[in-house]
Amino acid sequence: MSFDVDLQSLGMGMADAKPQFSHLVSSLKAQHPKLAYIHLIEPRFVGFDTYSSTTDVTNDYIRDIWAPRPLISSGGFTLESAKERADQSGDLVAIGRYFISNVSFAFLKHTNAH
Questions:
Q1: SS3 category, 48
Q2: Considering the domain boundaries, does residue 103 fall inside one?
Q3: Which residue range forms the structural domain that includes residue 33?
Q4: Given a cut of 90, is residue 47 above it in pLDDT?
């Protein structure tokens, strides 16, 4: 699920996505109690470019609704920011972009090699 990703720049957005996605996640939680997890993309993207958000747009409202169930967060994480997110929120964190472009990424980060 891609909550609050900047789809406005692609001509596909809505002014306030929170009501729609709050309803969606609340319904998923209520109607599918055995659903293992949801996977969120953090709102740090315009197209394929990552940016540092200067707004208060977050997926925290989704975390609040979905809790205490597992949640996977992705979107522009570095190893350091992934660890920080996991420590702060308890999220599982996906790091796909760097791994796909460099399959030895996990090994290099594990051994602190560059």
A1: coil
A2: yes
A3: 8-110
A4: no
Do the beta carbons of residue 71 and residue 65 sit within 8 Å? no
Asked if the structure places residue 2 within a domain, the reply is: no
Q: Is the dihedral of CA 46, 52, 76, 24 positive or negative?
A: negative
pLDDT band for 16, please (50, 70, 90 cuts).
confident
Q: What percent of the chain has pLDDT over 90?
A: 30
- pTM attached to this predicted model: 0.69
- Asked if the structure places residue 3 within a domain, the reply is no
Give the 3-state secondary structure of residue 39. strand
User: How many domains does the chain fold into?
Assistant: 1
pLDDT greater than 70 at residue 69: yes
Q: Name 40's Cβ contacts closer than 8 Å, sequence gap at least 6.
A: 1, 2, 3, 59, 62, 71, 72, 73, 74, 75
Whether residue 94 is contained in a domain is answered as yes
